[in-house]
Amino acid sequence: MLSFALVAAACDGASSSGDPAGAAAHTKSTGSAQTPAPPPDAASSAPATPPSSPGTTPTTTPGSATATAGGSGSASGSARCTAEGLTMSVRRADAGAGHLYYRLTFVNKSAHSCTLTGFPGVSLIKRDGSVIGVPAKREGAAQGRRVIAPGKAANVTLHTLNQHINGSGCWAGADYLRVYPPGSKEALTLRDPQLRICGDRFTTSSVGG
């Protein structure tokens, strides 16, 4: 009987010590299951930032691409016209009340649009390279930027007077017309421009249509 009681007591002790171990193991398992719970929340919130960042970039990029493809965007993206990319010609325009006008035309011979803004530098040149009189002065207000598509033109107006107006004579005939497009340090040269300046009046408008 005594040995049976001891065996029974030993069995009871093993059972009671096993319960706490099982309970503790269950608690750790549950805590372990609860511990990963925040990562799903973090994972669900973490992707919220990356999508918003890529989402902003495509929205902005197409927007700017549209603006560039449009009229104003295209204008702002056009480079300044260079002397190398232009040709020029000059012809007599309308005259009136003792005034003479010449139309100086720039043609864009390049393969891309370019812009001209402001006044050109215009001089009459002798064969030896010396300047006749003085370079043309600016006349009128500066106009806005002019975008010139390939093969298209922009103009300025050269202004002088008829002979004997203001009691002065005319300058010597020019062998060349030398023109610096607005913003350019390189010049275009036109031979025998048939341009005669009288009355000590020689002006140029800004680039226009």
Kindly describe this structure.
The protein is an alpha+beta fold and 209 residues long. It folds into two domains: 2-77; 80-204, Immunoglobulin-like. Helix content is 33%, strand content 26%. The protein contains four helices and twelve strands. It has helices at 2-34, 38-45, 49-69, 71-77; strands spanning 79-80, 86-92, 99-108, 114-116, 121-125, 131-132, 137-138, 146-148, 153-161, 176-180, 188-191, 203-204. The chain has a five-stranded mixed β-sheet with strand order 2-3-9-12-7, with no helix packed on it. A four-stranded antiparallel β-sheet has the order 6-5-10-11, with no helix packed on it. Strands 1-4-8 form a three-stranded mixed β-sheet. The longest helix has 33 residues, at 2-34. The protein is globular, with a radius of gyration of 43 Å. Residues 1-75 have low confidence and may be disordered. It holds the Pfam family DUF4232.
